[in-house]
Q: What sequence folds into this?
């Protein structure tokens, strides 16, 4: 059977008995078994659980919002009874005794959980190369990175091994794999989605969000996973009621200088033209302090990492601290350094203050515009191995991602074409906190205007 | 350039409860120096009178009702399911000298 690429197509097929949920699972598993050894997309396959759920769906009345949707999770979400590694050897044999809130919410909404996805260990990375279980290859071209840290979350969709997936974004880790996979994804407002049962990286920046083949599907999944959770006190329920029929988007000049690839610059230029034809207005804006984003991020994030990873002591669960990989060790060390006596004020305190300046600049821009447009990354997918010996150059991959995480605003990644080398291209839009609806509306305008059709690599 | 010394790297490793091999120290020293050098550009930013941001939700003092419906708690067996344990307890390394680790 031809795999459906949208929730609508899936659910219509099930309702009209074109295929059953069990047959859907058969087809996804066939693909996983054929390609996973080579592409290293899944770390654990939930075959038994998926068939059990599929049978339940086939016997149901098809009323749940996500009935029959085959989904998979970055291996950083706890799944009761199913191994969860965070991509690290230190948790190689960890079987969680409970599930993350979002996993429960999705399963209660009818999702068939097919497995756990590869990622950079503890979500530290931009290319998937920091996974202790092998690097995920990009289905569009296996010599290139699938993007990280949610590398499997992107590749699972662009290879047709799953209809939707969930990732985490601390500084681009949902948007980058979507961007390198010709996919849509949402990095929600900080605090919009529960993080209970998510292995923490940097707690003041971590967000949880969906990847899918259309804006509507991203929106549908987001609506299921968002909202109050008494197990996560940082969650807020809010949404901006934007009744605009005409939108104004800001082009921050700082995001279109320096190291940006000409190909991406040209592609985003075309995107802007398409939007203008749809009656969307653009104005030039300036966010002068966003150039410090990666510096702020690489102080605050390692500081929080060093604290969060201190709980790995090998006593209650997991292996000994010797089993941390290189990147985790590097970040723990950096964090301990910037927090240590004599350096705290110069680094950590300073970074928190510059974060305030960036946040204020962003907030004040949103009094003038509804959204901001920016590249997701400076280049299309890069070759595997290209940046592994130079951590700083790897960190700079996320230079356009940092603004959204540091200021807690939502951002959507949207596919917008292919490079000369046939690698996916895309862009991101950012909105004020809890302005997800603005992003969905703008995403749909682009889909309609370009007659967008979902694509998989094979 | 901000050059970390080997002594500093070893000190930070100790603070981090990490044992680094000689090879790791050699590899991390220039890498960490380069990253610290990069992030040091923040010293140029004027942050006088600016308050630090530690989170972006604006929430303070989040309360909830105390209720029995707050979901399941884990059993002792579940809590110990990922460790060897000892007699239903977690087993920790001995911290007092002169005792064996039993």
A:
């Amino acid at each position: 059977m031809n795999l459906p690429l949208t929730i609508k197509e899936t659910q219509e097929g099930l309702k009209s008995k074109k295929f059953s949920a069990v047959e859907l699972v058969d087809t996804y598993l066939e693909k996983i078994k054929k390609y996973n050894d080579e592409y290293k997309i899944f770390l654990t396959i939930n075959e038994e659980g998926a068939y059990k759920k599929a049978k339940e769906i086939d016997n149901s009345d098809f009323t749940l919002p996500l009935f029959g949707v085959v989904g998979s999770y970055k291996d950083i979400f706890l799944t009761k009874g199913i191994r969860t590694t965070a991509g690290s050897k230190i948790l190689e044999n960890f079987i969680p005794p409970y599930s993350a809130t979002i996993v429960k919410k999705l399963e209660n909404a009818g999702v068939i959980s097919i497995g756990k996805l590869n990622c950079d260990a503890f979500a530290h990375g931009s290319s998937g190369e920091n996974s202790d279980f092998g690097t995920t290859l990009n289905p569009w071209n296996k010599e290139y990175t699938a993007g990280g840290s949610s590398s499997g979350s992107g590749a699972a969709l662009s290879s047709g091994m799953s209809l939707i997936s969930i990732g985490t974004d601390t500084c681009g880790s949902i948007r980058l794999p979507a961007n390198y996979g010709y996919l849509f994804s949402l990095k929600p407002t900080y605090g919009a989605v529960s993080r209970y049962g998510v292995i923490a990286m940097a707690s003041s920046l971590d967000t949880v969000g969906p990847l899918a083949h259309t804006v509507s599907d991203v929106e549908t999944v987001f609506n299921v996973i968002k909202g109050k959770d008494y197990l996560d006190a940082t969650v807020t329920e809010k949404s901006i009621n934007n009744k605009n029929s005409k939108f104004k988007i800001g082009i921050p000049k700082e995001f279109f200088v320096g190291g940006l690839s000409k190909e991406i610059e040209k592609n985003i230029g075309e995107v802007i033209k398409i939007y203008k034809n749809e009656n969307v207005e653009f104005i030039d804006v300036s966010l002068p302090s966003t150039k410090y984003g990666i510096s702020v991020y690489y102080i605050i994030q390692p500081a929080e990492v060093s604290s969060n990873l201190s709980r790995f002591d090998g006593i209650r669960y997991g292996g000994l601290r010797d089993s941390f990989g290189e990147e985790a060790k590097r970040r723990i060390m950096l964090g301990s350094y910037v927090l240590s006596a004599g350096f705290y004020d110069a680094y950590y305190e300073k970074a928190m203050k510059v974060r305030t300046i960036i946040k204020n600049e962003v907030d004040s821009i949103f009094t003038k515009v509804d959204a901001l447009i920016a590249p997701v990354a400076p280049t299309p997918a890069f070759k595997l191995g290209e940046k592994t010996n130079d951590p700083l150059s790897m960190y700079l991959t996320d230079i356009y991602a940092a603004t959204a995480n540091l200021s807690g605003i939502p951002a959507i990644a949207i596919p917008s074409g292919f490079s000369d080398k046939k690698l996916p291209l895309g862009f991101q839009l950012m909105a004020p906190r809890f302005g997800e609806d603005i992003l969905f509306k703008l995403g749909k305008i682009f889909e309609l205007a370009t007659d967008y059709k979902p694509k998989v690599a094979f | 350039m901000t050059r970390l010394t080997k002594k500093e790297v070893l000190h930070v490793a100790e603070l981090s409860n990490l044992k680094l091999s000689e090879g790791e120290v050699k590899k991390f020293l220039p890498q960490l120096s380069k990253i610290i050098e990069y992030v040091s550009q923040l010293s140029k930013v004027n942050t006088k009178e600016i308050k630090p941001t530690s989170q972006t939700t604006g929430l303070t003092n989040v309360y909830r009702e105390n209720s029995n419906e707050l979901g399941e708690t884990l059993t002792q067996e579940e809590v110990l399911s990922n460790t060897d344990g000892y007699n239903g307890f977690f087993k920790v390394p001995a911290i007092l000298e002169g005792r064996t680790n039993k």
